[in-house]
UniProtKB/TrEMBL annotation:
Domain of life per record: Bacteria
Protein name as catalogued: Uncharacterized protein
Length: 176
């Protein structure tokens, strides 16, 4: 039963992220790295179809902040080259906190990505104020003993969806 609730929650997040076609949107996923990455991968799988293209980067796969920025620029370029196909474009970044010393450089690249029509899905272990400004939604992971995750929209200051701990099988992260 718990997988059913998780899948429903992920589909709801994916639907909300794709329902706004007028302008680009973004989602910040905040929480412990491994849990965020699992959620992010499942969200990517829910988003990817014939009408959407998702490019995923995990900054933990790179040794330096400079490497992270270089691969981020490359991803933006590759995604923007697919713009003519008419697909909705998503850039998914895991472990944004890895570019802590070069946060502003990374944010500039993300601003450029949004101006090219690329939607953002960024995970980090804390809320970066610059990412809050670039994203319209916040997904919190491991929020409390009762609620495992919530989807929050900044502009309306409302929780749009939530997932209770009892409905989660990613729960290994709660016990560690």
């Amino acid at each position: 039963m718990s997988m059913e609730y998780q899948e429903r929650y992920i589909r709801k997040v994916a639907t909300i992220l794709t329902s706004k076609t007028k302008h680009t949107t973004g989602c910040l996923i905040e929480g412990e790295g491994a849990v965020c990455l699992k959620f992010q991968i499942e969200l990517i799988n829910a988003l990817q179809d014939n009408h959407r293209l998702v490019y995923h980067l995990d900054f933990n796969d790179y040794t330096s902040e400079t490497d992270c920025l270089a691969v981020l620029k490359k991803a933006r370029k590759q995604l923007s080259s697919n713009k003519q196909d008419g697909k909705t474009l998503f850039l998914s970044l895991a472990s944004f906190e890895r570019v802590e010393k070069k946060t502003m450089d990374a944010v500039k690249i993300l601003i450029g990505s949004r101006s090219l029509g690329i939607n953002l899905i960024v995970s980090a272990n804390k809320r970066f104020v610059h990412l809050v400004g670039l994203t319209e939604y916040l997904v919190t992971m491991n929020k409390s003993d009762v609620v495992f995750s919530e989807l929050y929209r900044y502009s309306t200051q409302k929780i749009l969806a939530s997932l209770k701990n009892e409905d989660v099988s990613w729960g290994e992260a709660n016990e560690s």
